[in-house]
Design goal:
The chain is elongated. It is an alpha+beta fold and 706 residues long. Strand 2 (117-118) and strand 3 (124-131) form a beta hairpin. It has helices at residues 2-40, 43-46, 60-70, 91-107, 138-151, 165-177, 180-199, 206-230, 236-265, 271-298, 306-337, 359-369, 371-386, 407-418, 436-444, 475-487, 499-533, 537-560, 574-602, 607-634, 642-674, and strands spanning 77-84, 117-118, 124-131, 159-163, 427-432, 449-458, 461-468, 494-497. Helix content is 63%, strand content 7%. It folds into four domains: 1-51 and 178-355, Multidrug efflux transporter AcrB transmembrane domain (Multidrug efflux transporter AcrB transmembrane fold), CATH 1.20.1640; 71-175, Alpha-Beta Plaits, CATH 3.30.70; 357-386 and 534-685, Multidrug efflux transporter AcrB transmembrane fold (Up-down Bundle); 427-497, Alpha-Beta Plaits, CATH 3.30.70. The strands form two sheets. It has a four-stranded antiparallel sheet with strand order 2-3-1-4. It has a four-stranded antiparallel sheet with strand order 6-7-5-8, with helices on both faces. It has 21 helices and eight strands. The longest helix has 39 residues, at 2-40.
């Protein structure tokens, strides 16, 4: 009698605990959101998209930009007013130009008297204009540029454009400012559509989407905190990528968890208990998956490029916030909603899913019959695609970085046609004031220099503006900048910068960063995989697969960027960033597959059967997750900057290749071909002792997953 009462009391206590835990988790998340809300709203206030926020930390051009901030008046905003008439400028045109420039000089504090420089063919007149009035304040810079554009107007066949570094920066800032809203709304819409198609439920898709939105808001608050405490760089690019990662990676984790939860609801009566089993089953894979992404992204801290180094912590924050939300808040909400959230396809306790021949079962069968042939064929396809990388266009010039040409780019193109082979963009030399006269003399006598003038002095520094004989960002101008740096090394504290020098430093630093960060990413991802899979062969197989996918994706980019998209160049950072994201994110799907394969092997299944069962069990989830992740990164292809379009395209293509070719065919066929050796040197690599009748080892019957 007493024992019965005790058992009943225990059951009631357990039931009360089961009901209380989800509510406690929900309350904790509400409290956490209340704490981070004030900080999340401030993230946009600390977002910086000046050139110095993207430049290499130790480069000459970065030193120039930082010292310019400290000179009297602060940073210089340099513009070029371009007056052009197709048949040749008239006297009235020149008078109009002079009057407008004089009006600008009256309204704003300029660093010198603007002087018009006519083109040889008489069609164009350019007025370089510079001011320290805005300083380093982006809003003031934008207001100055727009005010100049308001004054400099044409008409009657006279075209007037405002170009130069300041105008380019303003136009780029407009694109970055437009990323926040459209990027978020488009990402949410894409993820929502895919979840509706995947779940075929009018309610279920809302749950992971809402949780991902909460995780994104939380990540914004944490990112702001990192900026305030550690000074982490927050740019439009890194903030946009953080949002993409929250929704992409977070939805992937949700798909895996919900799939396993649905499976367990057929076996376990209570949703709370079913969720506990589901978390135990897929939790390690999700943790390892997020661990590889976080480890890979944190390797970007070793980069010298400010934009890359800042993206590492922000991307990691996004992934970890998504992980925390999907492993705590999502399970709590699903348990509270019960089975009815799956309506109309409710997984009833004790039911069996409808048996049907799946696409992934067919794929697995073909890979299982001829694993070596499938593996060799896939390797040839990836290798052939990788050759397309040889067709990637050269480094992206500053004026070619916009999808739709703004006024500043049109101005630069007009200058290039009207002043062929002539410098129209200043090179800046910063030197210690004590040796400024000697530096100025050396610069004026340097080959490739058309003119050099002393501008400003203060705080022990002097600024010298140099005009090159060659066109901006041409090979000849690049040689002039490099030789200037070599010749001026003998002068104490002398740096060569400016827009063209910045682009050169970006290219060189990206090459350096790639040689440092890539090995770090490979080692860190391998260590996580070895810890999860208790093997050396399986991790090496997965890493080799994602590296092949990265090379093939870049190759596809090379085949379409120039011929199809019309891009004039390739972002110097594309190789490094796409490698980090594709390796870290691509390994996710390998983890999902290999972790399930390991579960089957531990249950006694033979290697080939374990591989094929794992593919049948996870193939649908991996395909769904791959589609969602690819779609979220594809959102970047709709943005206005070429570097974002290229990054989004390469990662989206790589994820699709990884999902539908590498995971389903190549990794599965390699696992079948290697057999137990795929788990070497772990215990699974050795044949089990006979345990069943007749000396055969026991083998668990594979469980069909709906």
């Amino acid at each position: 009698m007493g024992s019965g009462k005790t058992d009943e009391s225990t059951r009631r206590s357990a039931h009360t605990r089961r009901r209380a835990v989800p509510w406690v988790v929900l309350a904790l998340w509400i409290a956490a959101l209340a704490v981070v809300a004030p900080f999340a709203a401030k993230l946009g206030d600390v977002q910086q998209d000046r050139a110095v926020d993207y430049l290499p930390a130790g480069a000459d051009s970065t030193q120039v930009a930082e010292i310019q901030d400290r000179l009297p008046g602060g940073e210089t905003t340099a513009l070029v007013l371009v007056y052009h008439r197709e048949g040749g400028l008239t006297a009235a045109d020149r008078k109009t130009a002079a009057g407008q420039v004089a009006g600008i000089a009256r309204e704003h504090r300029l660093t010198g008297e603007p002087r018009g420089v006519p083109s040889e063919d008489g069609t164009t007149l350019m007025y370089p204009v510079a001011s320290t009035e805005p300083g380093a304040d982006e809003e003031k810079r934008d207001a100055f540029v727009e005010d100049v554009r308001g004054v400099a107007r044409g008409g009657g066949g006279l075209s007037v454009e405002v170009g130069g570094p300041g105008a380019l920066a303003t136009d780029a800032g407009k694109v970055y400012d437009s990323l926040g809203g459209p990027l978020l709304y488009t990402t949410v819409a894409v993820v929502a559509l895919l979840l509706i198609l995947i779940y075929r439920s009018p309610f279920l898709w809302l749950v992971p989407l809402a949780v991902a939105g909460i995780a994104d808001y939380a990540s914004m608050g944490v990112a702001y905190g990192l900026n305030q405490v550690f000074g982490t760089t927050v740019s439009g690019q890194s903030a946009g990528v953080m949002t993409i990662l929250v929704f992409g990676a977070g939805t992937d984790y949700a798909l895996l968890l919900v799939s396993r939860y649905r499976e367990e609801l057929r076996r376990v009566e209570r949703p709370y208990d079913a969720m506990k089993v589901a978390l135990r089953g897929c939790g390690p894979a999700v943790l390892a998956s997020s661990g590889t992404v976080a480890a890979g992204l944190l390797c970007l801290l070793a980069a010298d490029l400010n934009s890359s180094r800042g993206m590492g912590p922000l991307g990691t924050v996004g992934v970890l916030c998504a992980l925390l939300a999907m492993l705590t808040l999502l399970p709590a909400v699903l348990v509270l909603l019960g089975r009815r959230v799956f309506w109309p396809l409710v997984p009833a306790f004790g039911s069996r899913p409808r048996q049907r021949r799946s696409l992934f079962a067919a794929m697995g069968s073909s890979a299982g019959r001829r694993p070596v042939a499938v593996l060799a064929g896939g390797a040839v396809v990836l290798g052939a695609l990788a050759l397309g990388a040889l067709n990637l266009p050269g480094s992206l010039k500053q004026e070619d970085s916009f999808v739709d040409k703004p006024d500043s780019v049109v101005a630069m193109e007009t200058l290039a046609e009207a002043y062929p082979g002539q410098g129209t963009q200043p090179i800046t030399v910063i030197t210690a004031t004590g040796g400024a006269d000697a530096v100025l003399a050396d610069v004026r006598g340097h080959d490739g220099v058309a003119a050099a003038e002393r501008e400003r002095s203060g705080g022990g520094w002097t600024e010298i503006t140099v005009t090159a004989e060659a066109a901006p960002q041409s090979a000849a101008e690049t040689r002039t900048i490099e030789s200037l740096r070599e010749d001026l090394e003998g002068h104490e504290r002398t740096f060569v910068g400016g827009p063209s020098a910045e682009q050169l430093d970006l290219k060189d630093t990206n090459a350096r960063d790639q040689s440092v960060v890539v090995p770090l990413v490979l080692v860190s991802v391998l260590l996580v995989l070895v810890a999860l899979l208790r093997s050396l062969v399986a991790p090496l197989l997965l890493v080799a697969a994602v590296v092949a996918v990265w090379a093939a994706s870049l190759g596809i980019g090379g085949l379409v960027f120039g011929p199809l998209f019309g891009f004039e160049g390739t972002d110097p950072g594309l190789g490094l960033l796409s490698f980090v994201f594709l390796v870290a994110l691509g390994v996710d799907y390998g983890i999902f597959l290999m972790h399930r394969m390991r579960e089957e092997s531990l249950s006694g299944a033979e290697p080939a059967a374990a591989a094929l069962t794992a593919l049948r069990s996870t193939g649908g989830v991996i395909a769904s997750a791959g589609l969602v992740l690819a779609a979220t990164f594809a959102v970047l292809t709709n943005m206005g900057l070429v570097q974002l379009v290229q990054l989004g395209f390469v990662i989206a293509v790589g994820v699709l290749l990884d999902t539908f070719l590498v995971r389903t065919y190549l990794v599965t066929s390699a696992s079948v071909a290697l057999g137990r050796r795929v788990w070497w040197p772990g215990p699974l690599s050795r044949a089990p002792e006979p345990a069943g009748p007749g000396g055969e080892p026991h083998e668990r019957k594979p469980v069909a997953v709906g």
